[in-house]
Each structure stands twice: as structure tokens, then as C-alpha cells.
Amino acid sequence: MNNSGFKLRHCKAGDPLPIWHGEPFSRAALALFAGASGDHNPLHIDSDYAQAAGFDDVFVHGMFTFAFMQQCLARIVRQESLDNIKVRFVSIMQLAEQPVCTGIIRQAEQTETGLQFMMDLNVCNQHGVPRLTAEVRVTLPFI
Fold first, then answer.
1. Which residues form the MaoC-like domain (predicted)?
2. Nearest CA to 69 among 119, 106, 6?
3. Which candidate in 20, 22, 35, 91 could, as Cys together with 1 as Cys, close a disulfide (CB 3.0–4.6 Å)?
4. Which helix (H) or strand (E) covers residue 127, if one does?
5. How far apart are CA 20 and CA 97, in angstroms?
6. Residues 51, 56, 62, 64: what is their CA dihedral angle, to the nearest 10 degrees?
7. Contact criterion met (CB below 8 Å) for 86 and 135
8. pLDDT per residue as tens digits for the range 29-69
9. Strand partners, 104
10. Could you give phi then psi for residue 49, rounded to 5 degrees?
11. Beta pairing partners, 136
12. Do residues 81 and 8 touch, judged by C-beta distance below 8 A?
């Protein structure tokens, strides 16, 4: 997840964001996220329960996928610069899938308070299957 000197401040509409590759989601990671988040839904941590409910196996918490996207975003934007995030969960991230976050600058403009950017982000699995999309508005203060 290296942003290689990427500077959002220098971007314009149409510019791509860095591509970030996460670690594949493991059973251990799901259990740790369940403990940290308080979301102990057995669909995410109990294979027998998930299979009885009609799934092949446990699957990743939607908010865990969202947390990955936020971690990627935090590599290029300070938390206090985030104005709004609108997220849509598209499909279920499966156990052992590797998340990949991509994005593009949809709009960049100067406002009274700073440089405002509208960005479209996507989290897919390693095969390019969409799992989450987001619209993000960021305002960077003038230096």
C-alpha cells in the first residue's frame, strides 16, 4: 500500500488514485475484527453456521471491507479533511479474497475554504469483482 509520493493537492479531475492491495482476509482476521468491532454475527466466524444458512463458508464483515477502504484513503488524506463518505456495499467479500482499492478524482475545484475534491473509490477482490463503491468529498485547506 505505498502511495509513492502521491500528492492529492496536485491532482485534477480524471487523475487516478494510487492502487492499494491488502492482505487476503483470513479466518483469524475475521475473528479479530469481530472482537474489535463487537460484531459477532456467526455468519462471519462460524463455518457450520454459515453453511447451515446456505453459504459456502464464512464471509467478510461489510464494515471490515469499508475499514480497508478507509485505511487506503487515510494514506492520502488526513481525517479532518474528510467532508463526506457515501458507501454502497455491492457484494460480499469472501474469505481468502484479497481486497484491492482503486479510485479516480471526479472533480477538483477551489472553494472559499480550500481545494475540494470529489473522488470515486472502489474495493474489488483480486479478480476485479466489485465489493464496495464510495463517493468521497475532501477539502484540503489552503497552505
1. 24-92
2. 119
3. 20
4. none
5. 14
6. 100
7. yes
8. 999 999 999 999 999 999 999 999 999 999 999 999 999 99
9. 16, 120
10. -65, -45
11. 85, 119
12. no
What count of residues does the chain have?
A: 143
Cα–Cα distance for residue pair 43/41, rounded to 1 Å: 5
Are the C-beta atoms of 66 and 131 separated by less than 8 Å? Answer: no
DSSP letter at 66? Answer: H
CA angle 44, 47, 53 (to 5 degrees): 80
Q: Taking a C-beta distance cutoff of 8 angstroms, is the pair 108, 13 a contact? A: yes
Say what the pTM is. Answer: 0.93
Question: Is 101 in contact with 14 (CB distance < 8 Å)?
Answer: no
Q: Which residue has the cell 469499508?
A: 66
- Split at pLDDT 50, 70, 90, the class of 143 is confident
Cell 475475521 sits on residue: 30
